[in-house]
Structures
1.
Amino acid sequence: MPDGTAARLDGDVGLELLRSMWRIRVFEERVGELTRADEVHGLVHLSVGQEAVAVGVCGQLRTEDAVYSGHRAHGHAIAKGAPLGRVLAELMGRDGGLCRGLGGSMHLVDVEHGFLGATGVVGGNVPLALGSALAGRLLGGDQVAVVFFGDGAVQGGVFVESVNLATLWALPVILVCENNGFAEFTPRSAHTNVERVSDVVAPYDIERETVDGNDVVAVRDAFARFLAEARQGSGPMLLECLTHRLRGHYEGDPQRYRQALAADEWQELDPILRLERRGVSDGWLEQDAPARLEQDARDEVEAAVLFARESPFPSPDMTAALVYAT
Amino acid sequence: MTATTYLQAITDTLADAMRADSRVLILGEDVAEGGPWGATAGLAEEFGSERVRNTPISEAAICGVAVGAAQSGLRPVVEIMFVDFVTLALDQLVNQAAKAHFMSGGQLTVPLVLRTQGGAGQRGAAQHSQSLEAWLTHVPGLKVVMPSTAADAAGLLVSALADPNPVVFVENKTLYFRKENVPNERDSVRIGRARVVRPGGDVTVVALSRLVSESVAAAEELAAEGIDVEVIDPRTLAPLDLETIVESVARTHRLVVAHEAVVHGGFGAEIAAQVQEAAFDELDAPIARVGAPFTPVPFSPPLEDAYLPGRDDVATAVRAALAG
């Protein structure tokens, strides 16, 4: 069965989606290496395998649309426009990082690109996106707010409070759930009897859809429909993307709780390979293009590594200076 | 001078702020109806339900919405009906609001005012009577203010509304309806500036919130015994105006700290520690702390009355400091 819409995908769009996914894939794999080399510090959660969600959603947003994310946020920040070098410098705790080295992997913020931030507390980001949507409405703009969260966030009270409030106030916020089937180390079935997140919110009569989150075109198409409505001031909506976290919960996770996918199973799921196969069969992707796209991403990531390594650590004076805004 | 109440001063200040700045909005349970004491009475009628937003009983989401709104250009004022319910919003307050500016390397600001009220004395029992301000002062990034008069409530609220940081504004339910004369012009009170409520030369009493007027009453009683007490209201706990307190202690050489909160781990411990670090040699007696015993607030009226620290406790502590 073909991926995404039956309609033919525009080749330029397809190439852009591939480029964006490759940038995140290669970045994340490199971050994994740098974590093991102790150049990237702290708790690191990679999104390898989930790139289609970040790219399918963020690629359609404007800079002024606010995006919030959680602990697995690198891909979302990059897809929203954060420069690779500054993301990596942040993960390395450097002054040239997005947050001058004070946030780290779980707390990326890039206001210039409308990435209002990641939070390390599962579910804590959801009401923030509502507030941003409310501000957009009261200040008279047509910007929307988007929040990414995992299926693990849905069992928390603040999620239910937020869905209730967003529907009550009809806020133009799009809730994007990356349902990778695991909340940290535990399968969804051990946390709840409700398999689909879209079913959790059903009583609120919220517009919702569950898509194959490893099919970037499916994510993009579903999100485009929601986005068009949110631009007109409608909302909220929930997009549930069924996806697969290829790596552990965090870097170093021995993953005793699950069986790794066989290589051929992953080939069928990998959002990059899937779009490449489609591009070749549709005729907008040449046979040798994937290798070139991957190499371009590798070159860009290596430049980011150089940038980050050359950035100094922040001055200790900065700590006290940034407790309060002045 | 105009006669007003602590509560009316808050209502009037909120109304002025909303007239002056369309970014100011109020969020909270029953705020459109004025709330249980009437702090927001009349505001929904003047400013509409978009800017005076009734919310469900969802403290975490309310506070989170306010944080997000503040990060995106609004100036939200959140009302948490009882400080006891701040517990439900602590992730948003402590992990999100307090740290956003710092963790973003200065990119984000959270100009948010969280109004709440605490204190016992109304038979509310242990879940509607607490004084939890010390917890909040322990979190870098939050400012914590605790006005004891109508004039300070108005003046500090003006400053809180203009502050680019999250400010927790802790009112006291037993002060709401006290009549007070305030200046016609509402002056802002700088956050981080204490007030010498009553000058004196023998003992310094640093008192918070309801204990300020209790300490003044104690001072008047002690004056009849020839004891001259200076009463200082820090007004803001974070940041704390240590200088004014230390200057006083350097004259009196004796310090009593008084608040309604449980003594153990209360903010009085922080004041005592900072004063002895700054002025150990000035002290002629151990620093005394007045506050509640280490129990939840009891319900039964005689038990609650016995639990509540007040003027007699302050007077006893002052006499002991002079005897020591």
2.
Amino acid sequence: MQGKGQVSIEYLILTGFVLLMLVVPAVFFLSSLANKGVYGTVNTQKIVDLGNGLVDSAKQMYYLGLYSKKIVEYEVPQNVERIFLLEIDKSGTKYYYVGIIINDGKEQSKYFFPTSVPLMSNISSYVAHNPSGVDISSYVNECSSNLCDFYSFNSSAIKPGKKRYKIETRYFNPPNTEVRVSISPLID
Amino acid sequence: MMNKRAQLSIETMIIYGLIILVALSVIGGLLYFNIIDLGSYLPDKCDLGGTGDLKCEEMSFSQAGGLKLGIRNIGQKPISLLSVSVTDNAGVMFSPASGTGKIGTDDISDSKALAPGEIASVDIPSATGKAGKLLRGSLTTSYKFKGGAITQEATGSIRVKSS
């Protein structure tokens, strides 16, 4: 009787071991699949929300007039390599974009959100103007043959999570009378 | 007597369990080494990725006609340049190939832009299929908004059965 009980226990242990061997790789396999699918889609939606949100708010503030101001909150997605406000001068015509570069370690994806309103930012510890260590033409091919001016968000401003941005219309370079929309991250 | 029957039941269940495990492992192995392909039972799928300005709505893939895509502009701005390149991930059916977007017979251009809501056709004749075989590929779409300065790139995927 005792011997049979032992055989049963051994059966159970063996079955448990086989199950463990199957479940552990399956969990890794399924989680990597889920990461590629669901997580990728959610992250892309966050990028689109952030880009379109900033562009739409900038447009709204610009047309409300000088000194219009609002604070918006968007979620910065995962794996952000760079967020920048870009001005391209192509044969005298200026084009403005909000650019979001994502790098998950395997591939780099670039998202550009065009806007018809002129953009700028407040230079701070979170925003640099044409930083020397950044080659903008590596992100935007058009910048190798055209004049590009950009404000690059860095450090905490590109870390994932909810971030607030101040969007206001003001003079670009007083006493210059050019009006632009300033987008600046507000980090507490 | 009662004890003995209970033990027999447990052992039977364990043996059943083991048989199921072995069967699942064999199926898993066949899937892992691509000996059986469950993907061929899934419906065709075409995803362009990017910021969601373009949507791949139609596709056909054949030995004779190559790959044909119908791409709709679901954004808010007209598009003045559209090209798609496709790569066969397995590298069996064709080498990387590309095609440009057309409206009717005209290439998309500044004067013939793809308006929001309109659909463009993209023919890639050199992307030829093998009848009955499944293409799992990557799509790289380049497009530019009319009056814009940057040519944007979006990376997506395609799964389509060849006829």
